[in-house]
Amino acid sequence: MTSRGIARALGYVVVLEAEPTLGSRDLRTTVPRSPRGGALSAIRGRDWLVSRPHAEELKEQLCCDRGRAARPKVDLLTKELEDFELKKAAARAVTGVLASHPNSTDVHIINLSLTFHGQELLSDTKLELNSGRRYGLIGLNGIGKSMLLSAIGKREVPIPEHIDIYHLTREMPPSDKTPLQCVMEVDTERAMLEREAERLAHEDAECEKLMELYERLEELDADKAEMRASRILHGLGFTPAMQRKKLKDFSGGWRMRVALARALFIRPFMLLLDEPTNHLDLDACVWLEEELKTFKRILVLVSHSQDFLNGVCTNIIHMHNKKLKYYTGNYDQYVKTRLELEENQMKRFHWEQDQIAHMKNYIARFGHGSAKLARQAQSKEKTLQKMMASGLTERVVSDKTLSFYFPPCGKIPPPVIMVQNVSFKYTKDGPCIYNNLEFGIDLDTRVALVGPNGAGKSTLLKLLTGELLPTDGMIRKHSHVKIGRYHQHLQEQLDLDLSPLEYMMKCYPEIKEKEEMRKIIGRYGLTGKQQVSPIRNLSDGQKCRVCLAWLAWQNPHMLFLDEPTNHLDIETIDALADAINEFEGGMMLVSHDFRLIQQVAQEIWVCEKQTITKWPGDILAYKEHLKSKLVDEEPQLTKRTHNV
């Protein structure tokens, strides 16, 4: 029986109160229909059974807590994001019918359709999410993956109310709270139970009531909650000192990690993650992969990392042609299964088409011949009609293949860039990021920079481009070298009111013909309609493609790519890898995508402890090294806390 069923059986009524800090997750306070027993006993999830005299008191206390937690002034950007989300929700239309039992922990929805601004993203398909499964939701950029997660997270899809949902949408806003406080406060049930226990203890209440409270708190590991929150933050890269810094002192990327830590800490029944590895370094990606692969409830994640999908997922959902198609296994198994199914589908398609052509030809030739031939022709016509009525196999519709292109850059004799005894710190009294670096790079360089966040990977690229100047030492560059740097904030330079075509024509006025520019942009996967739409209407992945097109036509000798895969789909990343491998110039890469590194990097350089060292193996060996560090240096990180 569900928590609601138990509550009703005991004579309780459930009162729902929305908890804004938890997205779509509901805070359920349960009060008795009649004062026939004041015992407080928690059922499951976020349900509490409290005596009537104290129900309003708890709710009032919660409201006060919210008021204290609210910042005096709402961050303008957060407000704009909230308004944008509301507008998106208003433009979204979802229909579907719950086909699974209302009390089931599995979710089966049929006749699911999803439209956005009148554009049909899903049509008459089914959504199947089973308890204990971890789903990877994949599909091309702009096809509607994030839109589907939002619809599920906001319960526009008919998810039973006893299934609590946590949808991670954006970073925590700046505040005076610490990361540890932000993670701890999300567990509202534990906090309310502790306050009720303290109140009962002061009132010298009956031992039975307190025992019920303590039993539920023990289920929640309340006495270990801070340790568990700290462990999660540590796994995501927060040192003990960082866990107690104010949130307003962190960048947006680190605040997103805090939001991710809250999602992992609260352990919802359904967890929705959209590109959770964005803003993470390789160390944190490995930890998160190990953490999520033990998730025992329902996990749905969107990720561009094949390696991450392989490590976490038990099932793949392919969003394709307005349908959701389901595959058992991880991403590699999906690729193999899909290839086999499509090969069989095409064989069936060609066989049917051959049969149809043969029968039509026979009917045309002999339909008006002798009586015997005419009867045979009529028989074949009936067979043909039955085939048509029963439904024919469709031709496989392949995803559009992309072919990125970096123009020839010409030759420059080595050394192209020389780094001589370079040291760097951001402030005079600040910590030293690098000390006495000495190396050279040229047009044959194919290097991936790895190391924990804060080790200086992005800083090194800025030093090499001249955006930062060394504190000591010298960086010498060839007088003719052109450097193109892709970084995570490149989208901010885009004029959102212009279309990609207008923007590129503005940046490259030497290209006079629009059709020529259309061909250039088209190579980066933007359709004709997307090329003339305002950039603000494009998805994040499509905006990234505009940035890549802009970067390529800078015609650089050296490519410095800082997290280029954020918001790109898997097919686009593969196209980028092919373009890098065909590029005539040099390349330095910072990425959390193990597969991209494996595809394009010839050397792995580890940025750590104020220096750079060459890793003796490939990136997969480095990943195994990071896994062993989790076990050897932080054994508490391997403890499984998601088991229920």
TrEMBL record:
> InterPro entries this protein is in?
AAA+_ATPase, ABC_tran_Xtn, ABC_transporter-like_ATP-bd, ABC_transporter-like_CS, ABCF, P-loop_NTPase
One Pfam family in the UniProt entry: ABC_tran
Q: Which residues form a coiled coil?
A: 183-230
Q: Which residues form the ABC transporter domain?
A: 107-346, 417-634
The protein's UniProt keywords, in alphabetical order, are: Acetylation, ATP-binding, Coiled coil, Nucleotide-binding, Phosphoprotein, Repeat
Can you provide one Gene Ontology molecular function annotated for this UniProt record?
ATP binding
Superkingdom, taxonomy of origin? Eukaryota
Which PROSITE patterns would you find in this protein's record? ABC_TRANSPORTER_1, ABC_TRANSPORTER_2
The similarity comment for this entry is: Belongs to the ABC transporter superfamily. ABCF family. EF3 subfamily.
PANTHER family, A to Z: ATP-BINDING CASSETTE SUB-FAMILY F MEMBER 2, ATP-BINDING TRANSPORT PROTEIN-RELATED
Spell out the protein name for this chain. ATP-binding cassette sub-family F member 2
- Say which species the protein is native to: Oryctolagus cuniculus
